[in-house]
Write a structure and sequence with these properties.
Structural class: mainly alpha
Radius of gyration: 17 Å
Order of helices and strands: HHHHHHHHH
Number of domains: 1
Strand content: under 5%
Number of strands: 0
Helix content: over 70%
Largest sheet: none
């Protein structure tokens, strides 16, 4: 019986999954920030700093709002150790992309789509684990998903995309709501995978429609 209880606890413990998703989201948002930095003529140090702030910004705000301190990147250096090298690498990758043709912006927006989906789901899951109300968890998922991009855009001196017609917050809130609703009906991994796929496809479709309209 003890063995079965232990096995059940291991199968239902999603902390490793959340940590893995957070690392992936951190890398994606750091990459998008480095590209934005190159688009706005930041130097290497500025690009790395922007990458780190963008990558941990949403999760930091979420942790502070739910009283989860020290915040996640202060207790596990993996996230800083991910964001800084990715920012370094994508600074040079972005510089190799031809400017003026929209290639940098296109790559940034598609990375944003992935980062939005990942961080929204991570944020909602962490909030639920902290025993917040489901509606609050949905809101905190959105905060986690969009705050990093808002910080990035503000530091670059441009209007955050969340205030424009890109439906960023709408997709995040809708995706978070679906995840919160279905996670108790099917296993957590399946619900995350399904909602992530749909959110990313929808966000990429919006980006594609925007490209065709310009």
């Amino acid at each position: 019986m003890d063995f079965l209880s232990t096995l059940h606890a291991q199968l239902t413990d999603f902390r490793p999954l959340i940590a893995s998703l957070t690392i992936c989201a951190t890398a994606v948002m750091a990459a998008s920030a480095a590209i934005q930095a190159v688009r706005h003529d930041f130097d290497l140090f500025g690009a790395i700093a922007l990458a780190v702030v963008t990558a941990v910004g949403g999760g930091t705000l979420r942790d502070l709002l739910i009283g989860r301190t020290p915040v996640f990147w202060m207790t596990d250096m993996t996230y800083l150790a991910t964001a800084a090298p990715v920012g370094f690498a994508f600074f040079f990758i972005a510089r190799q992309l031809r400017s003026g043709g929209g290639n940098r912006l296109r790559l940034l927006l598609y990375l944003d789509a992935i980062g939005l989906s990942l961080f929204t789901l991570v944020g909602a899951s962490v909030a639920l684990a902290a025993d917040t109300h489901p509606i609050i968890a949905i809101i905190l998922g959105c905060v986690t998903g969009v705050a990093g991009g808002v910080i990035r855009d503000v530091l670059c001196g441009i209007q955050p995309s969340i205030l424009k017609e890109d439906f960023t917050a709408t997709i995040s809130l809708a995706g978070g709501a679906v995840y919160v609703l279905v996670r108790d009906l099917i296993d957590d991994r399946t619900s995350m995978a399904g909602v992530f796929t749909v959110m990313t496809i929808v966000r990429c479709a919006v980006v594609r429609m925007r490209e065709r309209g310009t």
